[in-house]
Each structure stands twice: as structure tokens, then as C-alpha cells.
Amino acid sequence: MFKSVFGRLLTTYLIITILVVATLTLVVSSIYKDAIFSEKRNNLEAAAKKVTLLTSDFMNKKIEAAELSAAIDAMGYSTGAIIYALKIDRAKFEKDQAFRVDGLNDTFVPGDILKILDGQTVFRNKQYSEDFGTYVLFIGYPLTVNERNIGAVLLFCPINDINQNVNQMNLAIWLAACLVIIGSMPFIYFNSRRISRPIKQIEIAARKIAAGEKVEDTDIVSDDEIGKLSKSFNAMKDQIELTEKMRRELIANISHDLRTPLTSINGFIQGMLEGIIKPEDQFQYLKIIQEETNRLIRMTSDILDLAKIESGSINLKIEEINLKGVVDAAISSLRFKAQSKNITFFGQGDPDIRVLADAEKLMQILSNILGNAIKYTAEGGNINITSENQGEMIRISVRDDGIGISQDNLPFIFEKFFRADQSRQTDEDSTGLGLSIVKNLVALSGGNLGAESEIGVGTTVYFTLPSVK
Ligand SMILES: Nc1ncnc2c1ncn2[C@@H]1O[C@H](COP(=O)(O)OP(=O)(O)OP(=O)(O)O)[C@@H](O)[C@H]1O
Ligand SMILES: [Mg+2]
User: Which residues surround ligand 2, an ion (CB under 5 A)?
Assistant: First the structure.
């Protein structure tokens, strides 16, 4: 338990609470004890003063001896102290310390008497008294009659009585402290759980992800660091799931696209070996096998290209390029394909426009886009190439009047292996990798790629490249 965040929080909170409450309790009880003792001292001092006054009244014959004795008894009773009012002849006392009062044998007393006779008030907060067999609070007060110190008033108050009070109060304070600690337990428990639960939740989810299991989003809603951690964790989880989904789809697509031509090649070869295909037809089938093999070679090199671009292991040789030169080269490399479908190229851009790009990659971009325009345009169609200076960037557009792409499919044409019309994928020479390679290359060159299209009207694919200032 103490190895978990919850356990650690719980013990830390508990230790802090106990320490704080215990310290507060000690401080309060010591303040209380001091207050009680000082109040007691004040009471005793007041009583001593009163005894002095009464004695003075007695000596001046204002009150009777019985009255004095009764008053002193009453004060002793009310203060809980034993009171002595002693008349002492200083000279005699100094000479032989002749001081004999029944029951007053404590050794500290004679020393204090001298000070008292000098007019001082003596306090002893915790003095052991042999006479009383216990600790006492002692006060010695000068007995002054008609402005002359004629003796001492001694008060002995057993501490036990005071302590009993203090102890009772202490018990109450400690009891309250225990209640505070017990009362704070649920708060400490729930707060520790509130902090540790999300961490535990994320830890369990992370463990499941590591084991390849599917997990739900963590449902932690807070604005603090844990809430932010949870959000980042959910985003990371989604990204991992997406990557995993893409990996699965990629493998499924690649296996499917490899299996289809391989199956047909295998079928034709088997047909020839078993004599089902007649020798005079074999040339025609070997042509098909060659086409399929070329398609496989093209596809594997496209996949390798994409993998290289996506892993960031290709470096572009960016230089100033005359755009028209590359467009012309791309058109001429596709000339035969275009001628075979009677397709005409228009535009071809401003001869003075120069862009910052890698010549070889720009050629690859244009060949792919123009290749698509030819492939998806019917016999006798037109392809228009235009370039436009937008200041920082040059925008190159390739517009055809071909079959077009539906609005449903348009957002996906730059994704790997996406082919708009699923039915034509078997008989057409396409793998759906061209535009995703183009998208990556344009992005690497610092530009953007987009497309607009309408079924039956045509398609415009455009991209931008940095211009030469
Ligand atoms: N000019 C266009 N006209 C109509 N559809 C297009 C055009 N360009 C692309 N598409 C659609 O977008 C899809 C994806 O294009 P992409 O170039 O990536 O793949 P592909 O041409 O099918 O195969 P590949 O280029 O790998 O041989 C195409 O299958 C097609 O459906
Ligand atoms: Mg293509």
C-alpha cells in the first residue's frame, strides 16, 4: 500500500495533520497552563496584600484578633493556600536565624525571609516543600504596617490542586485534537483517492495499450496537470490506434494488390503449362504477364518511395527551376499515352516563371498529376496546364475535362491506396499510391496540394511551390 501514490499521499497527509494538531495542542495546553499559574499567582498576591492590610488594621486596633484570624482563614479557604502572617524581629533573625514557627521547617524559607524583610516579593512557581510533602506555589510578601516592614506573609499553595485543573483541561484539549484527526480522516482518504485515482486509471490504460488491448478514453475532467495529462494520454492513445489501423489497412491493401496480379500471372502460366492456352495464343498472354509484372514492379517502387518519404529519409535538392521546362519534359514523357487517347495539352504556363524545388521530384509530381489527367479523361479530351504567381508562391493547376470525382470521394483521393471507383481497380493500371506520393512531395517542397472536381465535367488538381524572388 505504501508503494502506491494513494498510500504515500495518505500517510503524508496523516503525518502532517497529526504533527500540526499535536503541535497546536501542545502550544494551547502550555499557554493554558501558564495562564492558570499566572492567575493563581495574582490571586495569591492579592490575598497577601489583603492580609497585610488586615494585619495593619489589627495592629492599629481597628479590628479584633478573632476577626483577623477569621479573615485569613477565609482567604486561605478561597485561594486553596495555607497562609502565615509572621511578625519577625529583623535584628534577632539576622543574628541567629531564630525563626521558629510550628510546621514551618522548609529550608528555603529563612533565605526568602531576609529578602522579604528587605521589601521584596518572592515567588517560587514549583518548589518542593518538606512541610507539605508536595510541590507548592510559594509567595512571600512583606508585612508592612504603618510603612514599616515588620514581618512576612507566606502563602503555600499545593500545586497538585492547580495541576488537577490543568490536567483536566489538557485531557479535553487532547480529546478535541484526537477528534479533529479522526474527523479529518475521511477528508484525507477521499482527497488522496481523488488525486491518485486518475493516475491509477492512466497507468492501467497504459498497461492495456502496451499489451495491445483496446481501451476507452480516460474520463478525467479537471483543469490541473492531471487533467492535462489525461487529455494528452487520450490523444496519444487515439494516435496509436490510428497508426495501428493505418498499418493494418496498409498491409491488407498491399497484400491484396500484390495477390491480384500474382494470381493472374500464376493462372496464365498454369494455363500454358497444362496446354489449356494454345501455343498460338501464348504470345498474347505473355504480354499480359509482362504488363502485370511491370505493374508489380511499379507498385513496389511506389511503396518504397512512399516509405522513404514518410520516414523522412529523402533529401530534396532545392534549386531555382524554370517551371515551363519541367512541364514540357513531363508532357513529352507522357506523349504516347496522350496521343493514344487523342488528348490535347493546352496552356503549359508562363515561360518566365521560376520556382524553388527539386527538379526530379517536381517531374515526379507533374508526371503523376498529368498521368491521372490522361488516365481519367476520355478519348479526345483536353488537359489545360496553368501557372499563377501568387507572390510568395506559384500555383500550378492541371485541369482536365474527364470523368471527374464525386464530392464523397474527393476528400480521400490523396490517401494511400484510395481509388475513387472501386470497380475499375482490377482492370485499370492503378494502385492508388500516386497522389499520396505527390502530397508528401509537395509538402516536403513547402507547398500545398488540392483538388476540385465535378462528375462528368472534369477535375482540377493544383499545387503550390515557393517562388523565386
Ligand atoms: N484527374 C482525375 N480525374 C478523375 N479521377 C481522378 C483524377 N486524379 C485522381 N483521380 C482519382 O483519385 C484516385 C487516386 O489517384 P492516385 O493517382 O493516387 O491513384 P491511381 O491513379 O488510381 O493509381 P496510381 O497513380 O498509383 O497508379 C484515383 O484512383 C482516381 O479515382
Ligand atoms: Mg495516379
Answer: 372, 434
The C-alpha cell that represents 304 in the structure block = 518504397
Residue-level pLDDT at 94? 77
373 close to ligand 1 (CB < 6 Angstrom) = yes
What is the CATH topology of the domain spanning 5-164?
Beta-Lactamase (3.30.450)
Residues carrying CATH 3.30.565.10, the chain: 319-466
pLDDT band at 98 (very low <50, low <70, confident <90, very high): low
Domain covering 228-310, topology: Helix Hairpins (1.10.287)
> What is the separation, in whole angstroms, between the first and last Cα of the chain?
68
Q: What is the rounded CA–CA span in Å between residue 10 and residue 194?
A: 11
Query: Are residues 247 and 307 in contact, defined by beta-carbon separation less than 8 angstroms?
Result: no
Separation of alpha carbons 282 and 286, rounded Å: 6
The Cβ-side half-sphere exposure at 364, using a 13 Å CA radius, reads 22
Do 421 and 406 touch, CB atoms closer than 8 A? no
- What are the φ and ψ backbone dihedral angles of 339, each rounded to 5 degrees? -60, -40
Residue with the bigger pLDDT between 292 and 351: it is: 292
Q: What is the mean pLDDT of residues 61-73?
A: 92
Go through the chain and tell me how many residues it has.
469
CB of 413 closer than 6 A to ligand 1?
Answer: yes
Residue 102 pLDDT level (bands cut at 50, 70, 90): low
**pLDDT digit string, tens, across residues 223-248:** 888 889 989 999 999 999 888 888 88
CATH architecture for residues 319-466: 2-Layer Sandwich (3.30)
**Which segments of 274-358 does DSSP mark as H helices, in order?**
282-310, 323-333, 335-340
Query: Closest Cα to atom 20, ligand 1: which residue?
Result: 432
Q: Which of 369, 435, 455, 459 to mutate to test the pocket of ligand 1 (most atoms within 8 A of CB)?
A: 435
Q: Which position has the higher pLDDT, 381 or 424?
A: 381
> Residue 301: exposed, middle, or buried by beta-carbon count in 10 A (0-12, 13-18, 19+)?
exposed
Distance CA 160, CA 136 (A): 8
**How far, in Å, is the centroid of ligand 2 from the Cα of 369?**
7
